[in-house]
């Protein structure tokens, strides 16, 4: 379970021309604090790669933007690959099972006012 802010607009692609998959970067932060002995512990931010499939991807594509606050439930998935230099890299991703949008929705369109017809 993660609660954090979206770092950039979602990237959405289609697998097998019909299955949408969205990728977002989610930032989670721990507030800084001061220990009893006066030592300052700074704020710490971690970045997570979140993959959302099918209906969740469609929702993300329509409604989620940079800066939005999200609640994500999912599973950790690990994969490895060799980069161009032959160095083995490990990628950790969260495959989302559930998502809730926590940012208040701003009204994107002004209220329509009746027009006077003469």
Account of the 3D structure:
- The protein has 118 residues and is mainly β.
- The protein has one domain: Nucleic acid-binding proteins (OB fold (Dihydrolipoamide Acetyltransferase, E2P), Beta Barrel).
- It is built from one helix and eight strands.
- The strands form two sheets. The chain has a five-stranded mixed β-barrel. A two-stranded antiparallel sheet has the order 4-5.
- The longest helix has 10 residues, at 54-63.
- 15% of the residues are buried.
Give the H and E element order. Answer: EEEEEEHEE
The name of the CATH topology is: OB fold (Dihydrolipoamide Acetyltransferase, E2P)
- How many distinct helices? 1
User: Uncertain regions: pLDDT < 50 for 5+ in a row?
Assistant: 107-118
End-to-end C-alpha gap: 58 Å
């Amino acid at each position: 379970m993660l609660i954090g802010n979206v770092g950039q607009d979602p990237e959405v692609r289609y697998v097998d021309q019909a299955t949408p998959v969205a990728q977002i970067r989610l930032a989670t932060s721990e507030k800084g604090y001061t220990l009893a002995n006066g030592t300052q512990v700074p704020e710490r931010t971690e970045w997570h790669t979140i993959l959302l499939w099918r209906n969740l991807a469609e929702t993300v594509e329509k409604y989620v933007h940079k800066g939005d606050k999200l609640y994500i439930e999912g599973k950790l998935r690990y994969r490895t690959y060799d980069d161009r230099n032959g160095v083995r890299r490990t990628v950790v991703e969260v495959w989302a099972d559930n998502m809730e949008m926590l940012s208040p929705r701003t009204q994107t369109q002004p209220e329509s006012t009746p027009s006077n017809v003469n």
